[in-house]
Amino acid sequence: MSEHKTFYITTPIYYPSDKLHIGHSYTTVACDALARFKRMQGYDVMFLTGTDEHGQKIQDKAADAGVTPKEYVDKIVATVKDLWKLLDVSYDRFIRTTDDYHMESCQKIFTKLYEQGDIYKGEYIGHYCKPCESFWTDSQLVDGKCPDCGREVYDAHEEAYFFKTSKYADRLLKLYEENPQFIQPESRKNEMIAFIKQGLQDTCVSRTSVKWGIPVPFDPKHTMYVWVDALSNYISALGYGNEKYHDYDKFWPADLHMVGKEILRFHTILWPAMLMALDLPLPKRVFGHGWLLMNGGKMSKSVGNVVDPVILCDRYGVDAIRYFLLREIPFGNDGMFTNEALINRINSDLANDLGNLLSRTVAMCEKYFGGTVHNVAGTEAIDTELETMVNELTAKVTADMDSLTIPQALMEIFAVIQRANKYIDETAPWALAKDEANKARLESVLYHLCEALRVCGILLNAYLPTTAPKMMEQLGLDASALDLTKTTYGAQETYTVHKGEALFPRIDVAKEIAHLKEEDEKRKAAAEAANKAKAEAEKKAATPAEESTVDFTHEEEIDFDTFCKVELRVAEVRACENLKESKKLLHLTVFDGERERCILSGIAKWFKPEDLIGKKIGIVCNLAPRPMMKGKYVSEGMIFAADTADGGCSIAFYGDDTPVGSRIH
């Protein structure tokens, strides 16, 4: 155990162009489990996450939404923080690249690199991928498209500043050779080596065509390219180059940068090269995890295969979703999200194995010993086997967490849980209870089960932070029992259990799959409709506008006071009939909130009386009564109606919750 050691772990800072999905949650929950486990070991942990808020995509999204970029990202960032709160993410610091202190640090870093000759002004001619915020040369494109995301690129030609990445190629290769743990998994390292050996290009680090970003301090027409801005967050968040925080000396270098495989290149080439140029220590490890796939592809809102973690948490519980993400996905490789896999994992591991073990154990302790059992030594080989598994568990889990094989750590814990369930079947406590002579043996069996549950609960606290305290409560212990120093068999002498609710209720698989399939189809249909609407809007925007058929002959201008004399109100149509004397006119009887009045309207060609009876419409109330049909009728107002493009007529109807007589403004 370590009292004074520190541990600094970071997630990527997420791009708030839209709400985050389950794939983003996977990365953050994995980091949270690691951070929680290190705290349990006694480390002083700094767990950093945040948002990367600059760049062209945000600028364009904000423009489409009719708001400023800052207004746009503020709204999305609020949803990010809400999601991390929901998922029990125990981050210590949240950085936004729009924070003043971060911008101050970035400008100092950029200036230093420029003044020492590592950044120079030039001209960029090449290709740019907007979704990835990446520049590419001709040779790097794959079939003319972005090699990372496979989408279209566009030609870019502008004045720009460049960072001398090529200067550090040899030092980077030496870094990989001398520090084999720097890039993980191993397969990713080979990709980076190949990328460097094909000829490392200097990196474009500014734009003049994008204004949403941090200005280059000595040349304000340039905006820092998003990656230099984003990568610097790992040290600016500790106080490097600013007075906001003073944790740089304590926590840097980072113990672990956790990133998605698609941005590993920036974190293992550009970022260490920048740190080399700044003469700063390098992070100890960069882990590039795989993607969480759905239907064989990466999650994408435009495809309609995005899974909303909020919906899943509301339906199944936060810890169930955390467990699925940490256990199901092979760490470092791509993993598949399916509804079947989620439900089966909840049922088999959480409901059947863990929940059932706790429920059975507590129930038997209450039934056979009034809830209290003591430490009675085991006498058989199966007792020793369970004790040994319990005693070896912490070391196994620790080794797995150190090697970042999180699913394996959970497998070790659940191997003990599964063994304890088997132990119940082997010892058959219900049979032992039939003979008073077996009372000591029965108590020993139940004590073994309580100990297995207690130790597993302590270790599960890093992964299931809501469930572990509930386990302790049912075992008659409080939160102080979640202590990693007490994971040896026999550390707890006595248990007084308290039966509680099922940890994870079992799910009806067939019924739930049908429900989720229906929801998936709705989501896909919505995405297809949105894509179709977007395509039609773009097509319409690209098509020259047809000459309008609307009559724009204007009436004489009136002042505001004159307009205010027109009394507009909501009225209810209580009766309506055709007139024998006219094919054009309808005779409406409307109630304006005070009285009924007659209105004649020339809309009979487009509306039948039954279309209007009971509806609420807008009328002009203070129009002078107008004799019509040779004085046979008097029309006491006018209804609101508009011409349509096909020469027809439309009427604005008000909702049922609109009070009759309401003023229309």
UniProtKB/TrEMBL annotation:
Q: Name one GO biological process term.
A: methionyl-tRNA aminoacylation
A GO molecular function annotation here is:
metal ion binding
A GO CC term assigned to this protein in UniProt: cytoplasm
Q: Does the keyword Mitochondrion apply?
A: no
Which co-factor is required?
A: Zn(2+)
Question: In which compartments does the protein localize?
Answer: Cytoplasm
Quote the cofactor binding remark.
Binds 1 zinc ion per subunit.
- Bias kind Basic and acidic residues: ranges: 524-541
Q: Which CDD domains does this entry report, sorted A to Z? A: Anticodon_Ia_Met (cd07957), MetRS_core (cd00814), tRNA_bind_EcMetRS_like (cd02800)
The cross-references to Gene3D superfamilies, in alphabetical order and at most eight, read: 2.170.220.10, HUPs (3.40.50.620), Isoleucyl-tRNA Synthetase, Domain 1 (1.10.730.10), Nucleic acid-binding proteins (2.40.50.140)
What EC number(s) does the entry state?
Answer: 6.1.1.10
Where Zn(2+) is bound, by residue?
A: 129, 132, 146, 149
Keywords of this protein's UniProt record, alphabetized?
A: Aminoacyl-tRNA synthetase, ATP-binding, Cytoplasm, Ligase, Metal-binding, Nucleotide-binding, Protein biosynthesis, RNA-binding, tRNA-binding, Zinc
Q: Where is this motif: 'HIGH' region?
A: 14-24
Where on this chain is 'KMSKS' region (motif)? Answer: 298-302
Chief localization: cytoplasm
**SUBUNIT field:** Homodimer.
Q: What does this protein do?
A: Is required not only for elongation of protein synthesis but also for the initiation of all mRNA translation through initiator tRNA(fMet) aminoacylation.
HAMAP family according to UniProt: Met_tRNA_synth_type2
* Official protein name in the record: Methionine--tRNA ligase
